[in-house]
Every structure is written in structure tokens, then in C-alpha cells.
Amino acid sequence: MSTDKSLFGPGRSRAFSPFLAPEERRKLHDVLNIGSGMPPSFADELRALARKYIDDGDSLKLRTVCLLVADLCEQGWQVSVEQERITFQPPGIARADEQTVDDVKARVRAALQSARMRQLREPSVRQFLARMERRALRGDRRASVLDLIDDGRALAREIGQINRLAENERDCALARLVDPVIEVCETGARCPDTGLFLIDVWRYFRHTWAHEYRPIPGRQMLVLVRNAARPNRPVIGIAMLSSPVMRLAARDRWIGWLREAAFERISTGDWQPEAFAASLAERLERSIAAIRWDDLATAEEIAEPSETVAMRLQQRASGAAYARELELKEHYEQNRSGDGKVKPHRGQVKSNVTDVDWIAASEDLLFVRKRAENLAHLLSAKAVFRRAGLRAQPKEALDSLFATREGQKAIDVGLAELRKAGLSSEIADVSICGAVHPYNELLGGKLVALLLTSKEMHDAYAARYGNQVSVIASQMAGRAVSKPATLRILTTTSLYGVGSSQYNRLALRADDHGLDHDVVWSAIGKSLTGGFGTLHLGGETTQALRSMAIARHDSRRVNNRFGEGTSPRLRQIREGLDALGLKSDAILHHATPRLFYACELVPGSREILMGVNGPQGSIAPAADIAKAWRKRWLSNRAKREETLQALSKLGAASVRASLHADASGQFWLPIDNF
Q1: Which domain holds residue 562?
Q2: Residue 221 above 60 pLDDT?
Q3: What is the pTM of this model?
């Protein structure tokens, strides 16, 4: 089956023909043949039907298709059934009945809420929420997570009193009312005010977000912003810094990691060709030195590489990949359980403990392939740079390299290495950021986003991840490798494709607030036709697709281990969709545009990442940022009567209502302990 990529625009139809036996196809058509008049309960009915099928053979296929269709219908996709195919039509960015940005946001939010509400009804989640809200003896006092939610009515009353003060007295009074502090949630750390684990506190408030809570692989720094000026230091908002996406065109173009962007900046004089050429050559040498090569090539071949050695390395990589495929199949046969599940093939290195034999770890077939493959690319690019005379005549060499296919490929390799180095320790993605009740009415989300750029966050990130032994880099090098974690840039993506009130015009000007430099969250690009992701697919569907992939390949090829590849969830889903006979890109392409934002912690951070400039300026402390936020936003917001009215309705009751109400607004847990 093929899917035309021109159909990826919003609202375009995509037709699929799953690989099903004739009887299973008939059953599927009987279930789905409902035309355009889907009842609201259709997705739940489809899931109930899917659970009747066992996970084997064609029944597994039918079960997986039912779960997939249920998720897509719930997200607003239109589904119709024809003789030999199913046609899906994604909702896109806007519909004819939507007139405003708020209309679009409401529809996207409603689609996300369906998965969130389904998660909130899970017994384990209900038990977690009840345990957090139960007032219990923890330490020397009886406390509950509800104690960490400020009383909006009391807050509104105090703000009303402040508003009656003279203008020159309001700033100090507001500082005594809202004094933000950053609290990083370390494993095992408890809240001194309630005795609750900080990670549990963060997770509780995370469940109030518009989309369901999913742990993600890679780095995760959970952050609470609390108000030290109020009783129990109530939570203002939460955030999470996570590992950045490996490839993101808008971000990579903004930084200069794409060849076209690099060429433009050299052409306009933003970068000096000599500095850029030196950075490329130096990055290539450092990347080669970071790979164990003694079992792959000679010292002479590393110093003066040729296309012959690059081809030999590619052959070695292919051989290792084939041998690992056989290894995974053998693991599958030896570890397959009665229900068809297979435990992951983790390899020898389980963690970055100090007694690892890194030489032996580098000889794992996965890393033999990665070492040989990466070294082939690096040596091939090095040979091209040497022939062009990049070090001796940088300007002339760059002109030649940018003009030829061979040279462009070599530059792409160098830029990819610069990107990998930057993403590994100098960029973090803000995957969660916002305020909780009642501080959302006081633009607390802007405060949280700004505080993430503070010196306290920069230092906390360095303390958490700096000089930590990297499992992947160490297996690639055959020795223990640690890297400094110098946070320079934060990036984030809008949940809605029509703008973000939190990040739009989010700037503190140095001249207005006495800062060393401007603190600015900038819009850096937009995905006009949407992007690829898994947010619209639920956990049950993902598990079924994983089973499909394992059944098709007679092996578990995605094992959630370091070095195997980015985004295990996405790769598992792709394999499962391919096993169904569906074009994975057509399902994973959500057709909802995304806006991308970024903030440089100091001016010139992008140039530092490219190796064409040095550091400029210092990072503002949290206290200075909070003071600027109060002046720029809180002061004016607090004067609005509608803000005080909305504020007075928010607090523990409103937070709890958002967690315990079903789609009709009815509570399914008793309300008490307020």
C-alpha cells in the first residue's frame, strides 16, 4: 500500500488497506461500516470490542486496528470504510465552524482531554490521587497535597488591599505576596511542608494538564516553582526539562545546523568563514577521537583516510547489523513467554556504574555497528575536507565544498556532529511548563517559563548532569566518558498550532529591569503541515502495535536500551503500523501545525554552539527575574477586577474538580478534606 505524501496537508484523506484475512476483514468492515454518523460512544465501544480478541494471529491484527481507529476517531479524525480500504481524514488546524484561535484551541484541547480523562479513570491513577489528597501523618504533622494549593479567595483579598496602596508602595507589597523559589524534584527528596515526595507532588499537578501524563525516556528534570511568601509555600507552577529532539528543522535552521542556514550566515557576514571552517575541522577530529577505532582501522588510515577504508567500515557495520538481527531472534526464542511477551535485550551495560569494562562493552554488536558506521562517515568527510584544503585555505575551500555534492555531504556530516555535541549537553527541551490554580490567573505560566532561564536552573542542570558518565559515549569510545552540562538554550513547542499566549511576546528588556541582557523567548519557526508524533495514540494501542511488531519480526527490535535509537515509543509504533500494512508516516503525521520557541540563556549562545564565537554576558538570578516579572506582568494583572473575580473561584476545590470530574462534570470521587 502506498500513501501520497502530498496528502499530508490538513484535512486531506488518507486511505489504508490493512493486511487481514478475509474473515477478519469482513468482521472489521461490519464494525466500522457506520459511514459519517459516528456516535460519541463509538471509540469506547470499539475498545471494548478490541479487548474481546486475544493477541494472536489475525485476532491480534483486528484488535490493533480497532484500538487504532478508536484513538483516531477520538482525536477528531473522520473514518469511512470502502470495499478494500479504510479512509482516514485528519482534522487539521481549523474547520469551517471555527472562527477564532480560541475555537481551534478548544477543539484540540477537547481531543486531548479524552485520553487524559481515560487515564484519570484508571484504578492506579485514582489510587494515587486519593493517596496524595488524603490528610495523613507525615513527619510531625498531618498534611495533604491540597495544602500546597493556594487559596484564590484569600489571595484576591490581599491583592485588593495592595491595590489601595500608593503606587510607590505596591511593588514592595507584591514582593511580600509573591516570592517565587525554584525547587528541583530529586529522587527521594520530600517536601518540608507536607512530607510528601517532591516527585509525587509534581506528578499530581501534572495530571491537571490538558493531555495525559506519560513518562519519557532520556533526561528529565522535574521542577516546582513555589511561593515562599505564603503559608506552606504553595505551588505556583511546574516545569520539566527533557532531552531535546534529535532533529527539528525549525530549531536546527535557527541555530545554523542546516547547510542552507550556515551558507546564508557566511554569505551575509554573520559568521567568518575562517571561524566556521576551523570549527568544522575541529569538531570532526574530536568526534573521531571519541570513537574506539583500534579494532576497525589503522592509525595511518585515521590520519589520512580514503574512500576505501570508508567502504570497508560500512561493510563491517552491515555485518554487525546482520549478526545482531540473528542475536535478537535467538533472544526472542529463548525468552518468549506464554502470552507472547518478550523481555527486552538490554546488553551487558545496565547502568553507568564505575566498574564497567568499557572495552568489552564497545564490542557489543550494536556498538560495533554504530562505531563502524559513524567512523565511515567521519573519515569520508575528513578526506573531502583534506582534498579541499579546508584548514589551509578556508574561504576558498568552503566555496568549493558548498558548490559540489561531495562537499555538501561532508559539510552535512560536520554540522551533524556539531548538532550532536550541542544536543548532548547544552540544550534542553521544555516539555512541560505552566501555572496551576490559582496562579494561572496571575500569568504564573510566564513566570515559570522565565525562571527556567535563571542562574539557579543553569546551576541545577550542571549539578545534575555535569561530569556524569555517559553510557552511550563510553561504549562508543571504549573508555569512561563524561561531559560537562552547560545549559545554553531552551526550546519548546506549542501544544496548539495557532499560537501560545504563554510564550508570545515573552521578553524582559535589560534597560527596563536592570538586567545584564535581554531575556527573550522567541518564535523560531512553524511547521505549516504538522509534524510526526505519538501524542494522539494511547497506551493500549501502543502496546498492541508493539505486539504486532514482535510477531512480524520474530524478535524484539526495540529494547529501550541506550544507543539503540531515539524515541523508542515512536519506533515501536512505526514497526507495528508497518506490520499492519499501514503507512506509518500517514498515521503518525498529526496534520496539526506546531509553533517552535527558543530562548538563549546568554546572547550569542547559538554562535557558541557553532564554535564561531565565545560566551557573552552572565545569567540572571531567579530573584531578579521574579522582580522583573512582578513589574512587567503581575502589577498590571492584579489591578483588573475580572482577574480578582476569577482568582476568588480557584484553589484546592477547582484543582480537585479538574482531576475527579468526568466528561459530564460529575464527580466520581467524594469531595472532602478541603
Answers
A1: 5-97+532-588
A2: yes
A3: 0.83
